[in-house]
User: Fold these one by one.
Assistant:
Number 1:
Amino acid sequence: MEAISERQKEALSLAYFEGFTQAETASTLGIETSAVKSRIRKALAGLRRCLGNEQF
């Protein structure tokens, strides 16, 4: 997962692997909900680029 930053990995992991809501993720990371949305969106875009957009 080198295609995404550590901050993006944190947000993605909490939301997808730990099942946190966006609000819970924001609270845990000490950021705004809008920042969580942005980090997850950018992380998914990075993963799509890395995987060649075949499965998305």
Note: Residues 33-51 form the longest helix (19 residues).
Number 2:
Amino acid sequence: MLLGRLLPRRQAALLAAILGICLIKAVTAGDILVQDGFTSDFDVINVHNDSSFGLTVHHRHGVFANTGRSYNASIAVAPAHLFHIGIGPNGCEHHRTVSEQAKLLTCEYATNAGFFDFTPPACEGNLITDGVSIQHPCPNQVNFGRKLGMTCPDSTQGDRIVIGYMQEADIADLTELITGRGWLIRHGQAYTNQSREFTPTDSFVSEKAPRTALGLTKDGAILSLVVDGIEEELVGPDLHEMASLLLELDVVQAINLDGGGSSTAVYQGHVFNMPHCLDTTEPICERNVTSVVCFWKS
């Protein structure tokens, strides 16, 4: 059983006020036992089930605050109860486009999600959908998950959002879970350089390419961000630029998902961004992927 401790009352109250949501606890390396040489490090946050707003989707064009380079982004924001990690039948072995999966899963909006192998076809990392564990564990890469039906300290109902590095026991009761590569935002601050997956000088961090990210806003909503690019042309954001844009969007927690030619957004059955499945300028096309981030209409 995981042994964690509550944040000090003043720190918890301050962070909850910043987030605008009800904070349960943050588990850090010093708080738990090390198992098999691995130490869990993750944040656990409850968010209210807010029915006052639904899914919003839009394009955003601008320049990154930290570099001044331009970007084209596709953004979706929704309350947590509309968020789902999905995968089609035999999805780890039978890859499909995001459009195909959005139709299968009745997603109003969907993006690509987890990393995967082409040959032989396989999913990478932890993957839980609708409470069914597709595969695990993957302790050394960052995760984003949800558990349904939690109660906030003020007795209102909500969902639990979990972000960070977890062992098998940590994810046993989650409803949804996806593994990414790079913890971009933590507690409202850029966290890329502290990610376990790579060093700050890793080429994966600095590479200019299409990117997909998943985050939690200060208001407790789930945010999906896809920024266009062309990998072989070195067009698109690096991870520091992604973090900069996420902070502009009031995101307080975020992870990096699969990117490059996989980065695709689909809205109401139509491709919403400019995906380059072959990593080249032409054609504009969707790549067959495994898991997807799915937002339902209601």
Note: The helical segments are 9-19, 98-104, 203-206, 239-248.
